[in-house]
């Protein structure tokens, strides 16, 4: 059931009790978790917060806490499962669900009271009607029993069975259509910030968390551009409101300001040199083809045309001439169209915090995402990485560490992409392209989680499309496999990336993987909440791919 | 030189790490006491001859000053050790860890036992006969609840109201401060600022 009044039906229900908060290990969930924590701190609501990455994590966490707790809050996990059945919930436990993963399971949507879904459906989302999916079967069954006693097959019973079969067919088709594509709805952090706002507990720190989560969505490009722009505009009104109330009575310069202004969309450029940052940003790298000699020359040409000396561009951005730094967005914007770099300069959020230099929201998102999926050589556990990423958002010393690892990760992704293109490892299988990160390559250690796999996949796909002469390339999806970091000998991760031409960002691979696995009886673990990433046994890879090809063609 | 031994005691105490208690230096204390004794004997002898020889006055003054200084150093040594012992009572409770116990001398142990029982008696008498543990919250807490992070798999932990919390590794909790303080000291939980 959807919650319409979030304060009355959610917040008032949990206050005064101890709650269990289960947070999926992704940036949006971390930000939402932190906002909730701030609210709970203010209202003295006792909580226990555990990170979860896979379905089995969720199950064990709920099982071990089930005895002591009466309400559970799930953040970005579990919406796509039939929760009551999967978690074997006793009826006194209430579950509050805030999940961006779509489609939500119909059983959760039509649950009476036990499962409460925070947030609303978007206008373009449709859910099968209740009558089409559920049916009161008890009466018909009891009738059947009666008739068994008579042991006579009446015509009306046959008619009923036929009707029932038809209904079941229709139901299966409806459910298939409904769950065929997996996609993401609005960020949970925004929802939580709005809750804080309704409780009059919104501060600029909480707002910043919502903003970081939004820019994380932008980086992972999991939602349509225009929806993201609308959300950004919404958040900007909050920025204006909070700053207006903060600074009317003080004459001092603001200690903590968030601004929404035109900024260059280059990865981490404030913490890197301009040349390096351009090379590792997907947008500039793919449209200038920076992995080729020609592309490199083109980039230098662009820099020359902007009037930026190469020596300046090769040193750290903070060491560049102040005048050049401040002019950079306007300079780049003027030349962007000529080099096909539309969308390079767009409005985005940045924050300057007392004595720290200005940081953009995407820097924070980069840092947190990199900490969330550390290279497997570091040997950190998932929950440790989760805590690191969550500390990094406080802007502490962990943030600097996050920036450093984000740079390393971007370099690894770039080098892997270059290897794919140089060695012609992006192979067309007909209905889709596929590429494999070789086992034992030093870069494989970095490709350890769903986010970085997605980033690599999109980067590779973009680069492949811009390099390929084949016009069909834009409409082909990509399947990426990489050795799983924990057991590289036996298991690999498989990740599906929707085609570039598709702007709705809906991913059909989740369902396709599921069907291919069940058809071939491959050994696979469909463990991730992001259903387009699965773990597959290495030996079953070829038969799995054969099934996938026949399924998609 | 006169007074060296006593001064070395002060130096020893000063150089030891703050908050720890070095072993009671019985040797040096005894030597300082012997020095005081011999100085006093010499002075007594000299005073008897004072009527015959006026020049002895300066020597008597010098020895007396040295004697006084030794006494001051010894008292300072003992007093500062007691001060440290007293802070330990408030920090560690009435039972001292064995490594501290071995460093104490007999009178110090006796003093500690008496001080402990005095403090305990006082704390029992507070709060309308209910008793109040003064050793917790030496600084007034800003919040009744704190955010803690669990560093190891501890298992179930029961709060005073009877609620049971499962402490598993890397989970974050928001709990009443008084209950988790000893777990923080044990290193099971970490306070998140």
TrEMBL record, chain A:
Ranges of biased composition (kind: Acidic residues): 138-148
Q: Where in the cell is it found?
A: Nucleus
Q: Which Pfam families match?
A: CDC45 (PF02724)
Q: Name one GO cellular component term.
A: DNA replication preinitiation complex
* GO terms classed as biological process: cell division; DNA replication initiation; double-strand break repair via break-induced replication; mitotic DNA replication preinitiation complex assembly
Where does the source fall among the domains of life? Answer: Eukaryota
Sequence segments annotated as region (Disordered): 133-156
**UniProt KW keywords:** Cell cycle, Cell division, DNA replication, Nucleus
Database matches in InterPro entries: CDC45
> Per its record, what are the GO molecular function terms?
chromatin binding; DNA replication origin binding; single-stranded DNA binding
The entry's family comment says: Belongs to the CDC45 family.
Q: What is this protein called?
A: Cell division control protein 45 homolog
Q: Which gene encodes it?
A: LOC108666491
TrEMBL record, chain B:
The alphabetized UniProt keywords are:
Chromosome, DNA replication, Nucleus
Q: Give the signal peptide, or none.
A: none
Which InterPro entries does this chain map to? GINS_A, GINS_bundle-like_dom_sf, GINS_Psf1, PSF1_C
**GINS subunit domain: which residues?**
59-126
Database matches in SUPFAM superfamilies: GINS helical bundle-like (SSF158573)
Q: What does this protein do?
A: Required for correct functioning of the GINS complex, a complex that plays an essential role in the initiation of DNA replication, and progression of DNA replication forks. GINS complex seems to bind preferentially to single-stranded DNA.
What is the official name of this protein in its record? DNA replication complex GINS protein PSF1
Q: Which organism is it from?
A: Hyalella azteca
């Amino acid at each position: 059931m959807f919650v319409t009044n979030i304060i009355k039906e959610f917040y008032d229900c949990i206050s005064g009790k101890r709650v269990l908060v289960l947070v999926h290990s992704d940036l949006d969930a971390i930000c939402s978790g932190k906002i909730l924590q701030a609210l709970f701190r203010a209202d003295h609501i006792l909580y226990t917060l555990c990170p979860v990455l896979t379905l089995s994590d969720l199950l064990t966490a709920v099982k071990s806490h089930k005895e002591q707790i009466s309400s559970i809050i799930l953040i970005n996990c579990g919406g796509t499962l039939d929760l009551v059945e999967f978690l074997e919930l006793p009826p006194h436990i209430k579950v509050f669900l805030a999940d961006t993963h779509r489609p939500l399971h119909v059983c959760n949507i039509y649950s009476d009271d036990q499962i409460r879904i925070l947030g609303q459906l978007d206008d373009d989302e449709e859910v099968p009607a209740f009558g089409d999916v559920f049916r009161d079967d008890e009466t018909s069954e009891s009738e059947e029993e009666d008739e068994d006693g008579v042991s006579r097959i009446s015509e009306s019973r046959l008619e009923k069975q036929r009707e029932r079969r038809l209904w079941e067919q229709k139901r299966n088709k409806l459910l298939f259509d409904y769950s065929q594509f997996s996609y993401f709805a609005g960020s949970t952090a925004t929802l939580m910030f709005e809750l804080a706002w309704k409780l009059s507990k919104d501060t600029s720190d909480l707002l910043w968390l919502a903003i970081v989560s939004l820019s994380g969505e932008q980086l992972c490009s999991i939602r349509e551009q225009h929806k993201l722009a609308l959300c950004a505009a919404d958040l900007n009104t909050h920025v204006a409101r909070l700053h207006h109330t903060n600074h009317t009575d003080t004459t001092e310069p603001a200690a903590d300001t968030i601004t929404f202004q035109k900024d260059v969309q280059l990865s981490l450029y404030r913490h890197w040199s301009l040349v390096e940052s351009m090379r590792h940003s997907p947008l500039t790298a793919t449209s200038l083809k920076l992995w080729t000699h020609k592309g490199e020359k083109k980039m230098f040409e662009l820099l020359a045309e902007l009037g930026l000396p190469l020596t300046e561009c090769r040193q750290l951005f903070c060491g560049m001439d102040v005048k050049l730094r401040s002019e950079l967005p306007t300079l780049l914007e003027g030349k962007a169209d000529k080099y096909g770099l539309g969308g390079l300069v767009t409005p985005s959020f940045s924050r300057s915090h007392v004595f720290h230099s200005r940081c953009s929201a995407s820097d924070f998102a980069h840092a947190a995402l990199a900490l969330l999926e550390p290279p497997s050589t570091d040997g950190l556990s998932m929950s440790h990485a989760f805590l690191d990423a969550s500390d990094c958002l406080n802007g502490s010393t962990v943030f600097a560490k996050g920036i450093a690892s984000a740079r390393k990760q971007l370099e690894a992704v770039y080098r892997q992409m270059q290897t794919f293109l140089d060695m012609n490892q992006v192979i067309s299988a007909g209905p889709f392209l596929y590429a494999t990160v070789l086992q034992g390559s030093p870069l494989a250690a970095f490709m350890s989680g769903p986010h970085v796999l997605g980033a690599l996949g999109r980067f590779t796909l973009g680069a492949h499309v811009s390099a390929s002469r084949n016009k069909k390339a834009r409409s082909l999806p990509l399947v990426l496999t990489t050795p799983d970091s924990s057991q590289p000998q036996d298991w690999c991760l498989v990740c599906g990336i929707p085609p570039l031409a598709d702007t709705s960002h809906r991913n059909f691979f989740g369902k396709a993987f599921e069907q291919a696995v069940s058809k071939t009886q491959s050994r696979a673990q469909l463990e991730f909440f992001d259903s387009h990433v699965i773990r597959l046994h290495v030996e079953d890879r070829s038969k799995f791919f054969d099934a996938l090809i026949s399924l998609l063609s | 030189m006169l007074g060296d031994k006593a001064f070395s005691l002060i130096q020893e105490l000063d150089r030891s790490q703050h908050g720890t208690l070095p072993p009671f230096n019985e040797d040096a204390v005894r030597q300082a006491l012997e020095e005081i004794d011999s100085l006093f004997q010499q002075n007594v002898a000299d005073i008897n001859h004072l009527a015959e020889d006026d020049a002895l006055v300066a020597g008597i003054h010098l020895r007396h000053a040295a004697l006084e200084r030794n006494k001051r150093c010894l008292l300072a040594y003992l007093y500062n050790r007691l001060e440290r012992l007293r802070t330990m009572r408030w920090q560690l409770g009435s039972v001292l860890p064995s490594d501290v116990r071995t460093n104490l001398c007999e009178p110090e142990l006796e003093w500690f036992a008496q001080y402990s029982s005095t403090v305990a008696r006082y704390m029992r008498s507070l709060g309308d006969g209910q008793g109040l543990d003064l050793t917790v919250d030496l600084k007034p807490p800003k919040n009744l609840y704190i955010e803690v992070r669990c560093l190891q798999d501890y298992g179930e932990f029961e709060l005073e109201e009877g609620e049971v919390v499962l402490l598993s590794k890397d989970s974050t909790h928001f709990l009443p401060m008084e209950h988790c303080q000893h777990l923080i000291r044990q290193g099971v939980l970490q306070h998140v600022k």
